[in-house]
Amino acid sequence: MSTAASRRRPATIHDVAAEAGVSRGTVSRVLNGGHYVSPTAKAAVDAAIRKTGYVVNRHARSLITGKSGSVAFLLTEPQERFFEDPNFNVLLRACSQALAAQDVPLLLMIAGTEDERRRNLRYIEAGHVDGVLLISSHYGDPVVARLHQAGVPVVACGRPLGQTAKIGYVAADDRDGARDMVRHLYESGRRRIATVTGPFDTPGGVERLAGYRETLSEYGLPVDESLIVTGDYSRASGEAAARQLLERAPDLDAVFVASDLMAQGVLDTLARAGRRVPEDIAVGGFDDSPAALSSRPSLTTIRQPWDRISTEMVRMLLARIAGEEPAAVILPTELVRRESA
After folding, report:
1. Is the pTM of this model over 0.85?
2. 152 and 128 in contact (C-beta within 8 Å)?
3. What CA–CA distances, in Å, run from 183 to 118, 164, 189, 192, 267?
4. Is it true that the peptide bond before 297 is cis, omega within 30 degrees of 0?
5. Partners of residue 216 on adjacent β-strands
6. Residue 65 has pLDDT above 50, yes or no
7. What is the pLDDT at residue 225?
């Protein structure tokens, strides 16, 4: 074979072993996680892979190991929500980057309808992915039970509600974040503090409302049910909730909104009603998503540590795939002060 033809031939595991000066078995162990390989040998193999341009044949590996070498990012929301809510894009990007560092591809799957759930579950249960990062599960979500019954490793973003199966999850401290926001509004002189909640079949909807109630009671303020309106995390639901609040309590002076996207809707309604923010009504959000910075005025909000959430989800899922037991991680939030409150 000519030298030119040799250069065009894809590098093989034999080429890597020859370049590194180790056995083919050592190269194989490095490619499968580096177990029982000395740091010196691993460094030599990594350098040889870079020099030869070796690319893992994932199909061949899957035939040997029974693993696909990929994981799914499964969003159980309608497709339009994926494009509207910036949180999902932030999570997808961060999870993809964390997996890329481990050379693991990520498949985006959206299961907002019954047909989508059926198709995606059939694909997952057939073994085409090794595990699932579950995003935005709702109370009693049948997807969780199906994946658990099929023995598919799962890590959820947020605490799964209404599940008997033991599922690993990573969550921000929703309740403590809500407390921080309501304290901030109270300490800035606000006393008629309303809230727009998330849906009650989600952990954020439940926990952020609990934090709101607890903090009002902490300051001796009555919990006025007319100041509580439920949204669905969409901008439109924030607009509608603000209209209800202005009708019920025209004297309100602050609103804690359970997501930045809904807070944008609240700001839109207040602007149309001629209410100044924050002079007349202070508005606080939750997430610190791109929506917080694009709001006018910019949004005071609670920052969820999206990068850490994504990194922990990926770490825990890879550990579950390797056989470790499910675990839970709750991460602290942070109050971010801007113009709206």
Report:
1. no
2. no
3. 44, 35, 10, 13, 21
4. yes
5. none
6. no
7. 94
DSSP 69: S
Q: Are strands 334-336 and 301-303 parallel, antiparallel or unpaired?
A: antiparallel
Secondary structure (3-state) at 254 = strand
Q: Is 163 exposed, middle or buried (0-12, 13-18, 19+ CB in 10 A)?
A: middle
Residue 43 CA to residue 8 CA, distance in Å, equals 25
DSSP state of 127: I
Q: Are 106 and 68 in contact (CB under 8 A)?
A: no
pLDDT tens per residue, range 216-251: 999 999 999 999 999 999 999 999 999 999 999 999
Q: How many residues does the chain have?
A: 341
Alpha-carbon torsion (36, 39, 44, 45), positive or negative? positive
Pairing of strands 328-331, 301-303: unpaired
pLDDT tens per residue across span 138-158: 887 788 888 888 889 999 999
Look up residue 149 and give its two tokens. 């019954």
